[in-house]
Each structure stands twice: as structure tokens, then as C-alpha cells.
Amino acid sequence: MLLEDKTAVVYGAGGSIGSALARGFAKEGARCFLVGRTPGKLDALAEEIRAAGGQAETAVLDALDEAAVDDHADTVAARAGSLDISVNVITQDAVFTPLIDMPVADFGRAIEKAATSQLVTTKAAARHMVKQESGVILFFGGADYHRGQPGLGTVQVGMDTVEAMRRQWACELGAHGVRVVTLLTGGIPETFPSIPEVEPQKHAIVDATLLRRAATLDDVGHVAAFVASDRARTLTSTQVNISCGAHGD
User: Fold this and answer.
1) Is the pLDDT of residue 218 over 70?
2) pTM for the whole thing?
């Protein structure tokens, strides 16, 4: 298995993307530590992983609480012997107001939460990865700097901010054998609610691809497991494009 003897921490594991990542890691042999704020969702996912023969443990904490995140990372590293993979897919508090109408305070809060959460969790993992001279930190979402779309408010700005952090982390951690990679997505229709109002958006995601299909949650887990494995050891400071051609060169 690709991730045998590896330890993965997934922040936001109770959500659809986080669950997909955890399943992908667990299927490839990783011991998964599932972190979030909704105990029921975390426990259900952990039971599912264990029923399939995987390893999973849960922790309820706020990813903005630096002390709690650090304590959890220390516990994981001590119990498992290493902290090999870390990914934070906690969603930002998106504000879809056009920037010209955007309340400054709302903008600041949204961007601050996205950046702070990523900084806190990445710092916690990086401390251990630098010591062990290995590790993979994954980001999710990405940015296509050649395309823009009006009406996204803080969403794309937040992802661009996180991407800037990813580039800086990669150059600072590379010398210690730590890889930092983003999964670039054009959208995952399965994550949308099954209501008529969002059907046009789901179709738009598919229509924007070259393959005429969008990535699935299973695709997300499979690619993430590969990128986190030693078979992808040459990949860092880059985005791995899982958009089915919606984003291109």
C-alpha cells in the first residue's frame, strides 16, 4: 500500500472533502487522525474506516486554537512515532458580495480565518516534519491565475492567499525534506446540496472541463493518497491539477 506506516492528520475531516481525503489515505494504509468540530460526523467516518480495515482516531478541536492544535500534533507524533501527512480543508466563511460592495470588516474576518487556520495547522505539522526530515503538507482548492470569475467575493481571494502561503512554506521547508503541494480543483459537484437551485452551478462545472466530467470525491482521495506517497517524492511547490481540464496551462 502507498501509505503503509504513515500517519495522516486531516483537519475538517467531517466535511465531504475531508472525508474523501481520509478514506483515500486509510485505503492506502495510513493511520488517520480525524480532526473537526462535529463529533458525530467524525465518529461515523472513523467507524466506516475501521469497518473497511483501516485505522482512524478522532479529536474535536478548533483549528484556530493554536495551543489545542499544537497539543494534538504533539500527541499524534508521540503515539504514532511520526507525523507524515497534514491537510487542512476547513472551509472559509465565504462572503459572495462583489468587492466594490464588500464591507471591510467582513472581508477582513473571512481572509483572516482562512489564513490563520492554515498557518496554525501547518506550523503544528511542520515542527515535527522538520525534526524527522520528511513529511507532506497538502492544500486543497488552488488558484488559476489566468482566469477570473466575478461574484466570488472572498472565496478566490482567500484561496489565492492560501496559495501564497503554500509557496512560501514550500521554499522554507524543502531543505528539510518536507513537500508542500496543492490539489487544484475546478469544483466537486458531489459536495453541492441536492437542490434545484444549485443544479446550474453543478452543470457549469462539468461544462467547463475538457473531459466533460468533473472530479469525484473518490478521485480526490485517490490523487491525494498518491501525492502524499513516496511515489510522488519529486512533487513540491506546485499544484496538482484535478480539474479534468477546467484549468489548463
Assistant:
1) yes
2) 0.94
